[in-house]
Amino acid sequence: xxxxxxxxxxxxxxxxxxxxxxxxxxxxxxxxxxxxxxxxxxxxxxxxxxxxxxxxxxxxxxxxxxxxxxxxxxxxxxxxxxxxxxxxxxxxxxxxxxxxxxxxxxxxxxxxxxxxxxxxxxxxxxxxxxxxxxxxxxxxxxxxxxxxxxxxxxxxxxxxxxxxxxxxxxxxxxxxxxxxxxxxxxxxxxxxxxxxxxxxxxxxxxxxxxxxxxxxxxxxxxxxxxxxxxxxxxxxxxxxxxxxxxxxxxxxxxxxxxxxxxxxxxxx
Length: 268
Description:
Elements: E1 8-11, E2 14-17, H1 32-44, E3 52-61, E4 69-78, E5 83-92, E6 95-106, E7 140-146, E8 155-161, H2 173-181, H3 184-187, E9 196-200, E10 202-207, E11 216-223, E12 229-237, E13 242-254, H4 261-266
Antiparallel strand pairs: 1-2, 2-4, 3-6, 3-10, 4-5, 5-6, 7-8, 8-11, 9-13, 10-13, 11-12, 12-13
């Protein structure tokens, strides 16, 4: 049997997740990187009346999406020549598992702000991976400068897609940015891994311009007041410079069975 090379198969609203979309926490569910990748792809494939850019993408996880067949639909909620609003829904067994909303705005000349962020090119970054699973099964190729699951505090590093979204459909720079936005919570973790669970239950990205490459730099920091939640704030950049801000809400609680197995796997 040929191994899958994409997160999903299918078309026209009916999709099936491959093993590459499996969550590292529960192989019966889909991971967030794959979910946000397909949602961003469906949004990008939706036509506009005028040339537009994606200004905001928000993804809410209502419940686990099973690693099986499911329905995905992207609809235009508001159509216009200046703005467009869209909604993407994932449904399995008749229930909504995840929902995304997107805002696009028309392209036009306007004043430019200046922002700098010092970071090396991906080629000059050590090939230190964030993921426990290496290669295509990780979904992303990552190169970590600072941070990670076992190095608490702010994190910085590069990420780019390692698999296709659908057969023959590679991730665009926009899809790559959406995928990378989901990395911040692991890159800048402040919670002891194997003791605390800190699942992100949403992702919100605000763009100031479209990304220009599949390599995405993430500069992330996690904050928490110790009340059972957390917030991850990330700057997303490409080779040209910063182009977006990303935020993730974390649901924090003790792991049901505290274990060092994840720590051992990460250091193996």
